[in-house]
Amino acid sequence: MSDEQKNDPGVAASGDSALELAAALREGRLSSVELADACLNHIAAHEDDILAWACLDPKIFREQAENADKARARGQPLGALHGLPVGIKDIIDVAGMPTTYNSPIYSGRRPVEDASMISLLREAGAVIAGKTVTTEFALLEPSETRNPHDVKHTPGGSSAGSAAAVAAGMVPLSIGTQTGGSVIRPASFCGVYGFKPSHGRISRHRVLRHSSYLDTIGVFARTLGDMALIADVLMAYDSRDPDMRMTGRASIAEIMAEDSPDEPKFAFVRSPVWDEAEDSTKEAFRELVEHLGERVDLVTLPTSFDYASEYHRRIMDADIARQFEKDFSDHNDQLSDSVKEIIERGRKVSAVEYIEAVESIAGLNDILELMLEDYDAIITPSAPGEAPEGFETTGNPAFCKIWTLCGVPAINLPILEGPKGLPLGVQLVSHKDDDARLFRTARWLLNSLEA
Q1: Which of 43, 67, 87, 429 is least buried, going by the fewest C-beta atoms within 10 A?
Q2: What percent of the chain is predicted at pLDDT more than 90?
Q3: Over 70: is that where the pLDDT of 219 sits?
Q4: Which residues contact 437 (CB under 8 A, 6 or more apart)?
Q5: Which residues are catalytic?
Q6: Is the pLDDT of residue 14 over 80?
Q7: Is 417 exposed, middle or buried (CB count within 10 Å of its CB: 0-12, 13-18, 19+)?
Q8: Which domains, ranges and CATH numbers included, belong to the chain?
Q9: Start-end of H helices in 168-299
Q10: 266 and 376 in contact (C-beta within 8 Å)?
């Protein structure tokens, strides 16, 4: 973000953390309408440069804020997200708002029912700010969104608008999705916190499907605590998503605030795609590992993981080919070449290859569980380097695919900087379903770097 954006007096309220804003809203030091207006003014000032929004109706935005203020005035119980604006990726259904998947095929689509996660946000008092730009069908075709740190660079994909909207100070919180690297990578490129929870922890009911084995809802925020705030709201069981497991409500914020029984131990994992990291990234991680000293070990993944990226590709391509077969057949001329390429590639995946890839997930997770018995988290790059210049690509998701395949939780920490002054993310990964402890470990790491 430019110095002008950072110093814009019109975003004095919306630029605070979600936790700070939530406290001010609950205590009456800030009204929801004042916050909505601050966000809308900032969006108006910068949207022409960033292009983060697919749908934004100021009237609907303010009406929700007015209703939040009325609820407080009447003394009604206030939810954890009372009055907080949240941006929603445009593959998630919001009643009364378009959900078009950034495709002309669905330009007139306007759902009448909320996705399950939108219902949870509303119950918690959130203001649904609007729909953020995604890439076409949340795949690899670059979108129109620009990186707030330098508009000549990609913000990443496919959750481009969600990451950019938070990075640009337009909203304090936003929702994205990840099937390959679509939360962690744009979070890294845009310099914000990003969280991809364990697979099956946030409902995907009425969210565009790619792959039931890989699709995961994620969140973007300005601080680790802000991510915990919204994650605790969203991580609730929903029987309408068949991949969800019946577990207790999340308590990420509570566990994150606890002191670790011992100082965390990290496994620095280069992963089989380490050669794809830029030299500046390798040097930055060398310095980070040096800083952690005895708290980190260099760990090499077993050779079983050499095939993980290929397994991920098979599952993703084949499932996408199945999901978009009708669009491929009926609207071929309205699909980009990159989308058609994925579908064509997926149609060539054999049943044997697909089953082998799916069956690999359990085995790889067993190996990770054994490895993580000695460590609190894996530390690895979020992306090969800074956001690439230009818009021919959304960047390389290679450093995310293994963890998406395994369904383990991952967090992007925006704590490093590349040679061009652009953000460079650190990715923390932990045991499947151990999301809360991953947040606690991330908090320890952040505190150690500030010391």
Answers
A1: 67
A2: 94
A3: yes
A4: 255, 376, 430, 431
A5: 89, 158, 182
A6: no
A7: middle
A8: 3-253 (3.90.1300.10), 257-450 (3.90.1300.10)
A9: 184-190, 224-234, 252-257, 279-292
A10: yes
